[in-house]
Amino acid sequence: MEELLGIHVRSPRDDFRIREVTVDHALRPDPLPDVDYSFNPYVGCFHACTFCYVPRLLQLDRTAWGTSVTVKRNAPTVLAREIRKLPKGLVMISTATDPYQFVEGRYRITRHALEVLLRAEWPVSVLSRSPLMVRDLDLFTQFGTIDVGMSVPTLDDRARALLEPWAPPIEARLRCLQTLADAGLRTFVSFAPAYPPTGDGTANAIATEFAARGIDEVFARALDARWGVREAMLSRLQESEIASELMRISDGPYMESFLVDLADACRSQGVTFHGDGRYRKPNPTTVDASGSSPKT
Ligand code: SF4
Question: 79 CA to middle of ligand 1, Å?
Answer without folding.
Answer: 23
